[in-house]
Amino acid sequence: MDPDRIGSEFPAPSFRGAQERALSDITDAFAAGNRVVLVRAPTGSGKSLLARAIAGAGRSVEEASPSEATGAYYTTPQVSQLDDVAEDGLLDDLNVIRGKSNYTCILPGEEETPVNRAPCARQRGYDCSVKHRCPYYSDRAIASNRPIAAMTLAYFMQTAGSDVFRKRDVVVVDEAHGLAEWAEMYATIELSPETVPVWDDVGVPDVHNDEVGPLERTARFAKALLGVCSDEKDELLRQGDLTPEEAARRDRLQELISELKWFLEDYRDTQSATTWVVDQPDGEGGAVTIKPLDPEKYLKHTVWDRGNRFALLSATILSKESFCRGVGLDPDEVALVDVEHTFPVENRPLYDVTQGKMTYEHRDETLPKVARLCLRLMARHPDEKGLIHAHSYAIARQLAERFDRFGVAARVRRHDSDDRDAQLEAWKASDDPEVFVSVKMEEALDLHGDLCRWQVLCKAPYLNTGDSRVAARLEDGQWPWYHRAALRTVIQACGRVVRAPDDHGATYLADSSLLDLFERAEADTPPWFRDQIDRMSTPDLPEFDPDAAMAGMDADPGPSSGAGHGVGRGRSSAADGANRSGGSNRTGGGSSTSKGFSGGSGGSRGSASSRSESTRSSGPTGDDDGGDGDDPMADHPLSDVWGE
User: Fold this and answer.
1) Residue range 451-473: average pLDDT?
2) Which candidate, 479, 468, 465, 463, places its Cα nearest to that of 636?
3) d(Cα 102, Cα 81) in Å, to the nearest integer?
4) pLDDT of residue 469
5) Residue 631 has pLDDT above 50, yes or no
6) Helices within 164-281 (DSSP H only)
7) Alpha carbon of 177 to those of 181, 295, 523, 561: distances in Å?
8) Is 285 helix (H, G, I), strand (E, B) or coil?
9) Collapsing DSSP states into helix, strand and coil, what is residue 414?
10) Which DSSP state fits 390?
11) How far apart are CA 190 and CA 541, in angstroms?
12) Is 588 left (phi over 0), alpha (psi -120 to 50) or beta?
């Protein structure tokens, strides 16, 4: 890497905000010999452009000897972030590659078949006559041979050890704040009828009802399951030609074999820093979930061994020391570059409109007040789009039902887990001042200008203590980590509606637990966000009046949108079918990761459970949010990457 090239590799014609100073500081940090540089840059500061400049400084093929790594990787956990990169003309030399399942075959009669289920993937010795035109292999060849390859973090981790995507000189991880959590979730092993093709061929013990302890009992079961999976996979391989369903079964078996081998190797390794926890809420015969805490060894293989120099960018790496410990880095060997926030604080106000606690035990009392508050905010912003962060699908449904009864459904749009992207694009495309009731859209969402002028945080986004990983950490006294995780999500959410120095957007806090969070996490709060908190005020709001809430809409009150199917003006079928794949031969964004096996569909990854055990004592700890049970992935900080 040549740090002196970083400034000249900046892709925009001019700098804005603090970008020029940031590039200078990043250059100095790498020039000082640091292998890893954390870049803490506020939302809207142009992190992707900074990332491109850093990646461009990687060693070129002309400068390298045959044994030296060259070029760079750009990777991000967020599918939507990768989509934005692919659509940005300033970043057109970041060559994007996605997982096979995101491309469709081009052979006659196979146009609807994902590449990972195409004839080349299911027929032994198949020689594809059009492989050179295959959208997947074409993108892969381009990305592997160009200086900068861009991919999701899932795909990046999957290609560890690949002959195609070998070690490179520079690795840039955008939106890196969730790296530890992503690694934990990605390395989690779900053993259930939906994810284990040979489930009916094995006897599943009650792992908690054994004198050797739940982890040892789980390891013994995993070893037995490994043998059954290996035999079944070998039988499929002997068949030669497979149906798409059989190919999916084969691939899932291979993935499961790798997962079980990894768990057994790491669990038996006395030097491993990983702590494993096991959930089996239904006892004997029930699903088993094996989860790692602080999987340093896993990250070493999939991330840290993949490059010479690393740049990790995020607005919300709140504690350098805690972040480094969580991802297996020595804080003393990592440099931190802070980028100044140049957006006027008066353009990004916080408003205290708290209605009480939205914890599970208080929700029945508080949620009706929050619903009425939202109508008063609609009346305050009659001609402006708004975003309601509902935190969970259960809260979103209850709010939508009340909006329906209030007669304002024509202004409200919501989504379910299977149509979130389509409904988001339809809302953004609408000319009406619609209000979008969303779940897990606090990150990687660019709502610049009139796309959104106000938003509501309905609930303090504490992690679910029913998740055994969270419970184990709190049992170990890691409360600062717990509060940092919630604060990080709040800061990310606040950045959705103010994207430039001349942009403006208001954030309303409806849950009084948010005020408590600001006090508890004060030591980890960035100065620029502390400025927002210190300026927080209580606004004068209009009285509750459904007619006033509808004043800016050219539509009559109608039935609830339910699963997000629009009513009113500005919701065309084209918008409702919108997706962000960016190519006719792709079926979506992201990697080909799948935890299911029936036709290649994915299974649940992140379920919370009520019965857990770990190498530490791990009963759930007292907490003011037990989470919602309606969506097994609702509490995951990177939930929009699942289902890639």
Assistant:
1) 92
2) 463
3) 16
4) 87
5) no
6) 179-187, 214-239, 244-268
7) 9, 16, 18, 34
8) coil
9) strand
10) -
11) 48
12) left
Q: From the centroid of its chain, how far is CA 71?
A: 26
pTM value is 0.80
Angle at 463 between CA 614 and CA 181, to 5 degrees: 65
Q: 309-353 pLDDT, tens per residue? A: 999 999 899 999 999 988 999 999 999 999 988 899 999 999 999
Q: Coil, strand or helix: which one is 48?
A: helix
189 pLDDT exceeds 70?
A: yes
Q: Residue 238 and residue 228: Cα distance in Å, rounded?
A: 16
Q: DSSP state, 620?
A: P
Is 561's pLDDT higher than 90?
A: no
Task: Please report which confidence band the pLDDT of residue 531 belongs to, taking 50, 70 and 90 as the band edges.
Answer: very high
Asked if 420 and 393 count as a contact pair (C-beta separation under 8 A), the reply is: no
Q: How far apart are CA 18 and CA 3, in angstroms?
A: 19
CA 282, CA 21: separation in Å to the nearest integer?
Answer: 56
pLDDT at 609: 34
- Cβ atoms of residues 112 and 104 within 8 Å: yes
What residue type is assigned to position 630 of the chain?
A: D
The 10s digit of each residue's pLDDT in 217-229 is 999 999 999 999 9
CA–CA distance, 400 with 140 (Å, rounded to integer) = 43
Instruction: Please check the confidence at residue 573 and state whether its pLDDT lies above 60.
Output: no
For Cα atoms 268, 270, 274, give the angle at the middle one, nearest 5 degrees: 80
Q: Is 508 helix (H, G, I), strand (E, B) or coil?
A: strand
Residue with tokens 């030669």: 240
Q: How far apart are CA 146 and CA 352, in angstroms?
A: 50
Nearest 5°: the CA angle 397, 185, 639 is 30
Q: How would you class 416 by CB atoms within 10 Å of its CB: exposed for 0-12, middle for 13-18, buried for 19 or more?
A: middle
> What are the distances in angstroms from CA 66 to CA 60, 149, 171?
11, 19, 19
DSSP-assigned states of every residue in 597-624: -STT---------S-EEESS--PPPP-S
The pair of structure tokens assigned to 194 is 């939906």
Phi, then psi, of 480 in degrees rounded to 5: -60, -40
Q: 312 in helix, strand or coil?
A: strand
Confidence at residue 181, expressed as pLDDT on a 0 to 100 scale: 87
Between CA 313 and CA 303 the distance in angstroms is 15
pLDDT on residue 468: 85
**Burial track 280-308 (b if 16+ CB lie within 10 A, e otherwise):** beeeeebbbbbbbbbbbbbbeebbbebbb
Q: Which two tokens stand for residue 84?
A: 């934005």
Token digits of residue 39: 């870049």
CA gap 46, 18 in Å, rounded: 10
- Helix/strand/coil for 219: helix
Q: Which two tokens stand for residue 140?
A: 């892969």
